[in-house]
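Q: My labmate handed me this sequence with no annotations at all. I'd like to see what the chain might look like in three dimensions before we decide whether it's worth expressing. Could you predict it?
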Amino acid sequence: MTAHAERYADERDLVAALIRNDAAAWDEFVERFEPLILGVARRTLRESGASDADGLARDVVNDVVTELLADDRKALRRFREPWSFKGWLGVVTARRARRLLRANWRQPGAELPPTVSARGRTPGSELGQVEEVDQVRQTLEALKPVDRVVLQLFYEGEHSYREIAAMTGRSVSGVGMVLTRARERLGRLLAHLD
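A: Here is what I predict for the chain of 194 residues:
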């Protein structure tokens, strides 16, 4: 276990540090709990009949982290004992996975939204897009957790530098530096795929 894990051996201490927006606590959270969230997301998606459970699970992880950071960490403030933090995260994750399925028409037998055919895309071009998105998703996983989270908050969550700074406990300029570093690293990794 890392030095961070020893620092927050008690889950209550870790949750309190996350609420205070301690950057080291968030790093430890990602290291300790991302595999758990990913596993619960995959299992929930598979049980719900998702055709791309592995790909969608990463989206669920991002949704969970975004929910925990949002509104001055309101969701974390609602965590109470006697729940274990792992158990509570599992419930939050399963709920997010089901919500993602409903939002993205991933239920078994669901039809694609009408806008797909209205844009004149062919099944082949859709397949190409899916493969491209999968490559980007896999490449994102090679980034440092903080880089990945900041990129996703900015691009997928459409949050401003100021909002990301408030969510992650970094300065606005620090968010800019993380984004710059993450974009460069992502660009280099994607260039090797071509």
